[in-house]
Every structure is written in C-alpha cells, then in structure tokens.
Amino acid sequence: MTRNASAPFDRDDLADPASAARALLGAHLVRISNRNVRKARIVETEAYWEEDPASHSFGGVTARTRIMFGPPGSAYVYRIHRVLCLNVVVGPEGRGEAVLLRAIEPIAGIAEMEVARASQTVGAREPRGVALTNGPGKLCQALDVTMDWYGTDLIEGRSLGQNGRLVLEARPPADFIRVGRSPRIGVSKAKEEMMRFYIKGNPWVSPRKGDE
DNA sequence: ATGTCGATTCCCT
DNA sequence: GGGAATCGACATA
Fold first, then answer.
1. Integer distance in angstroms from CA A25 to C1' B4?
2. What is the mean pLDDT of each run of 10 residues along chain A (212 residues)?
3. Nearest alpha carbon to residue A105 among A143, A73, A75
C-alpha cells in the first residue's frame, strides 16, 4: 500500500454520454512531460450523443471527426476560433459520441500550468487563479494539449514520444461530490438539453447564470 | 475558389 | 453583458 495511490479510470464508465459526463467529474487528468507532472480534477463536462444536432459527429464521419467514431477513451481534439478543446470519446465504437472537458481544478504543477497558459494566451494579462483552467480552451493551454494528442487513448495514457503522457485517473474514493446540471454552453442547436454537468460550488466551473 | 460559421477567450462598457 | 479576434472545416460552385 502506497500513499497517493491512483487507480486507472474505468473504461466501462464511458458506456453512454450522459453517465460518462457524470463519471468524469472528480476524475483526474494527468499530464506528464519530461520536465514536470501536472495534475487536475475534472469539474465540468458536456455530453454529445448520437444524432445530437449540436455534435460535430452529426452528419457523419469527416477527417476532423473520424476519431469520434473510434474506441471509447480516445482523445478528440479540435480547434475552435483560436484555441483547442479536448473531448473523451464515449459510447460503443461507431456512434460518434463524446464528452467535452470544460473545466478543471489544478492539483499539482500549478506553476507549470501558469507558464503554459501565459505563453499561449492571446491577451497580455497573465492568467491566475480560476482563470487558469475554467474553460475548455484554457485547460488545453494549461496542460499543453495539442493536435498531437488526437486519437490517443486516455485510459492507457501511453506515452507519445517526446510529448510525454496524458492520462485519466479514477476519482479518489474519498472525494465526494455533488453534481449540478444545466443546458450546454455556446451551442446553437438542442439548446434546451440539460447535458452540461459540473461539481456544485467548485470555483473553477466556468461562470454561468443559474449555477450554484 | 470563395463564403459562412463556430462545443472560445479576452477586453471594454 | 457585448463585440472583436481569427482560422480551419465544411458547403457550395
């Protein structure tokens, strides 16, 4: 028995989008590079399901979305405006389902996250505190998630050459959470669907009206 | 070849 | 709470 024992994330918890989005709350996202280890707790997610008009997979496979139809646990990284966003592919292979990681709470390697954010952010201001990781684009900057990670398996988290490793770990058993739910952010279709999930009261959850 | 449109972020009022 | 930045994906021709 070691202290700080970490268990792998259970791939079976990615069986369907809504329950996967819940299951990923409290799980840890770990970024290991040659120089440092950055660790964070997932505090906000959104589910995108088969036949969801707001999903990138709606309308079928394209070069950009092909990994959404791949095995659950795969990373789907895409560019929007100036930034990248990270998704976990979920559901049975071939359905095009995924969970968007919208916000994380830094646990370790915070100084390294600040450096990574400052070097990639467009504004002149240096991101600190909750602004470090309280959005889907921000968390990718903080963890140096690039398109190189497209298609990598986040459960096994195998190392990607010089880039290191990006891996999910199970929520620690002692970390009890209360889950809140709301419509998704920024989508123009299926607006009313309550498919955004977040840890109630967590400061890193992206600020939205109606949240606790 | 050209036009439209974001699963966003930042800065300003 | 509003608008600009900014660029690749995708649709249309």
1. 35
2. 78 98 98 94 98 93 94 97 96 97 98 95 85 97 96 94 94 96 94 96 81 56
3. A143
Question: CA separation (Å) from A85 to A2, A35, A59?
Answer: 34, 23, 20
Q: Using CA atoms, how far apart are residues A29 and A75, in angstroms rounded to an integer?
A: 12
- Measure, in angstroms, how far nucleotide B2 C1' is from residue A61 CA: 24
Instruction: Answer yes or no: pTM beyond 0.90.
Output: yes
* Angle CA A107–A178–A87, to nearest 5: 60
Q: Which amino acid is at A96?
A: G
C-alpha to C-alpha distance for A62 and A107, rounded to whole angstroms:
36
Mind listing the domains of chain A with CATH numbers?
11-199 (3.10.300.10)
A136 touches strand B (CB under 7 A): yes
Q: Is A25 exposed, middle or buried (0-12, 13-18, 19+ CB in 10 A)?
A: buried
In angstroms, how far is CA A184 from the centroid of its own chain?
A: 14
